[in-house]
Amino acid sequence: MYTFNPGPAAVYPAVRQYLQDAFDQGWLSAPHRSEKVISLVRQTVADLKVKLNIPQDYTVLFTSSATECWEILAQSLTPRRSFHLYNGDFGQKWLKYAQAIRPESTGLQFGLEELPDVARLPFGPEDTDLVCITQNETSTATQLREGFILNLFNRLGGALLAVDATSSMGGLNLKFIKADIWFASVQKNFGLPAGLGILVLSPRAVAQAKQIGEKGHYNSLTAMLSQMLNHQTNYTPNVLGIYLLSRIMAEREPIKTVHQHLVDRAEKLYQFFEQATPLTPLVANSETRSTTVIGLRGEAALIEEIKRRALEQGLHLGSGYGPLKSTTIRIANFPAVPDAAMEALVQFFVKEFPG
Ligand SMILES: *Cc1c(COP(=O)(O)O)cnc(C)c1O
To answer: Where does the Aminotransferase class V domain start and stop, copy by copy (predicted)?
Structure first.
């Protein structure tokens, strides 16, 4: 059985052994103020920085999910308003969460085949705290590439750039230096079970959080940052999740290698589906479509039949998301999905649904 669901996604087979080790080595009841857990956190943060090319002067925090990160940013880094650029469900949800806390927050929706014009974005650099983008929009299988993020970063004025990289961090070689806030959760490109979020802050974002000094919530950034100085958290963290992450990071190849593998595989998959199947890529523009989530489009009846027959053969394809639920399929091109799974997927289409 292979799963291509883009989240919760396939976990590494090694997780089975890591779970056993976690139990046997006493991690499941290790006190979170103990030296054992403190050094685990220290080591995991160090490995994340090395393996993902996160600058040494950035701060890594652990949360429970990417959704929690949305809320933390609205609470603790947005005294006035945030501006959100989105083209799918996750980006739009982020805007809604932000507006629930900071009602003056605004957004701009853009098309799947389109790169927004950075020079004409409707936000005031003087009174906007955060500019928010979704680097990889999992629901529409689109992506904002490095060049766009760099352009945006250069036009921020006083605002900070916040990037939802939930379905790309751990898979793509992100240029952390070109934004102030990045976050993700581990059930996507990290190949781990859900329940742990990773929040990465630039020195500028940390300084801003301290200056704002918001303290009204259990997960206020001020408290999280001061605890993390000692590699601790303000509540009992998901020690099992952090342990699993530490094992995965220790095994991981450098992100450049992982990135290239995913880019090559995505290109082959898009080409195959375009030429040899009755499906077409959901996004035609090769500059805006995602590397890590392959979106495919077709008639609802065909999509349903493909999903059903694939499942019979042990291939669990990802459904569309939100309004695209019945007319699209999503294929996670994540590092924990083995090449053999992609090969099985291609063979299935060659045999059952040739174009
Ligand atoms: C999955 C996903 C989320 C939500 O992640 P949780 O860990 O469930 O909170 C947010 N943003 C994007 C882009 C996602 O793909």
So the answer is: 126-297
